Amino acid sequence: MADRLIEDGYRDVGYVHINIDDCWMAQFRDAEGNMVADSRRFPRGIHFLANYMHERGLKLGIYQDFGIRTCMGYPGIVGHMKEDSEAFAKWKIDMVKLDGCHSRPSQMNEGYIAFGRYLNETKRPFVYSCSWPYYLLVGEIEPNYKLVSRYCNLWRNFHDIQDSWKSIEMTIDFFGDNQEVLTSHVGPGSWSDPDMLMIGNFHLTPGQARAQMAVWSILPAPLLMSNDLRSIKPDFKSILLNTKAISINQDPLGFPGKVIYKQFIGQSYTKSLFLREYKIDREMSDICRWTLFVKE
User: Fold this and answer.
1) The one catalytic residue among 3, 38, 160, 177
2) pLDDT (tens digit, 9 = 90+) per residue, 59-99?
3) For the chain, N or C: smaller number of CB within 10 Å?
4) If pLDDT is split at 50, 70 and 90, which confidence band does 262 have?
């Protein structure tokens, strides 16, 4: 995937992180309590992989979980926060996602802050991605977004996105219905994350893919692809490489767009009007198509 990011032009328009999700570890820590990479999946280790990325102008992200084990049952970070943060720094990791399976929401305010501090103490710059607010909401605890935005660079609020228009539509509705809370703490270094771009997988039409790219760019959301770049079709590749959308997403002010109009047609189709308070190039309208209308 790193090689394809470079060869196909993704790196040049800003896609520079390769992020490894759950299941990268061995089933158990070593005798000293250290995380160990799965020797079959990563026979040369994570440090080698990070160096491979850095030599090519890319960055490496990795996954851990604020629990006794990860969502898929691998060793979690509880009891090992300091050691794991130091390991990530030693391996030259650039981004860490901290999930929240097999943990107690009542301990998250303290725990997520503590791990962020351990990352900072290593003196290595990390992007810190938190699932903190999502698990609080699941546990019916109101997140303190002022606190979250202070200690996390991006944070998840809603369910894991799926490769379906219905899932994307539900995510858009959640962010629109809760936008006054979610957007008030968004800005450079602090991003509310609606989860990954499904563009280039199996179940979106090109129009639906353009709609997701447009909405994610306007929110503005972290643009993290979840696809196989070896088999992506040209229509979807062109959407992901659209520099008009990316320039809106990467606006230096980080100003979030908001829904100002919403209309239900039938039982499932939602038409929403988003507004950004500055001029957007006319060519953006081709990306927006019927799902999204942007005021010029």
Assistant:
1) 160
2) 999 999 999 999 999 999 999 999 999 999 999 999 999 99
3) C
4) confident
- Which pairing describes strands 191-193 and 154-156: parallel, antiparallel, or unpaired? parallel
Catalytic residue among 65, 94, 99, 193: 99
DSSP state letters, 93-150:
--EEEEE-TTS-GGGHHHHHHHHHHHHHHTT---EEEE-HHHHHHHTT----HHHHHH
Mean pLDDT of the chain: 90
User: Quick one: DSSP state of residue 160?
Assistant: P
Residue at 179: amino acid letter: Q
**In degrees, to the nearest 5, what angle opens at C-alpha 190 toward C-alphas 187 and 192?**
95
- Answer yes or no: 21 catalytic: no
Question: Is 99 known to be catalytic?
Answer: yes
What average pLDDT does range 99-109 have in this prediction?
96
Please, what's the b/e burial string for 134-153 (b: 16 or more CB within 10 A of its CB; e: otherwise)? Answer: bbbbeeeeebebeebbebbb
pLDDT at res. 269: 43
What is the residue whose two structure tokens read 């229509």? 235
